[in-house]
Design a protein that fits this description.
By secondary structure, the chain is mostly beta strands. The protein contains 2 helices and 9 strands; from the N terminus they run E-E-E-H-E-E-E-E-E-E-H. The protein is elongated and about 65 Å long.
């Protein structure tokens, strides 16, 4: 039997993520499995921790609290702008998603949550922040070789 998964291992995994009410929000079942390095923060903390000790072929269902997943809703991520100073925002509608530029060329997603005649309110929290999440996990492969993954990626282009 292959070694148990540990930090630093590169693994391939299928997962299905659901909200508390059972609504599916993401799954790899209809696409290629997720490949990631365990323990380096490429996935949420609880996901990283859950695969430790598992082996190829193992299946598990996990429940993650907000602290183990995308964190709690942060009030400082609710942003309000006066429309008088930014009239170009008046055409935005509730529910629209925006990319807000940050220093260094990065961007953060924000959802329009309120538009009045005088202001617009955006929520820059992750859409899954504050939620308890359930994941069905299946380890597809462990001990992947970075050089082989690179060669496969280049060949697939």
């Amino acid at each position: 039997m292959a070694d148990a998964i540990k930090d630093g291992d590169i693994i391939k995994i299928h997962y299905t993520g659901r909200l508390k009410d059972g609504e599916e929000f993401d799954s790899t079942r209809d696409r290629d499995p997720l490949i990631f390095v365990v323990g380096v923060g490429q996935v949420v903390k609880g996901f990283d921790q859950a695969v430790l000790g598992m082996h190829a072929g193992d299946k598990k269902t996990i429940n993650l609290t907000p602290d183990q997943a995308y964190g709690k809703q942060q009030p400082e991520n609710l942003l309000e702008f006066p429309l008088a100073s930014m009239p170009h925002l008046q055409s935005l509608k509730v529910g629209m998603q925006l990319k807000l530029p940050l220093q260094g060329g990065r961007a953060v997603s924000a959802k329009v949550v309120e538009v009045t005649e005088t202001k617009i309110k955006l929520d820059a929290n992750h859409s899954l922040a504050g939620k308890t999440l359930t994941f069905d996990l299946e380890i597809v492969e462990t001990g992947l070789d970075p050089a082989q993954l690179y060669a496969e990626a280049v060949a697939g282009q």
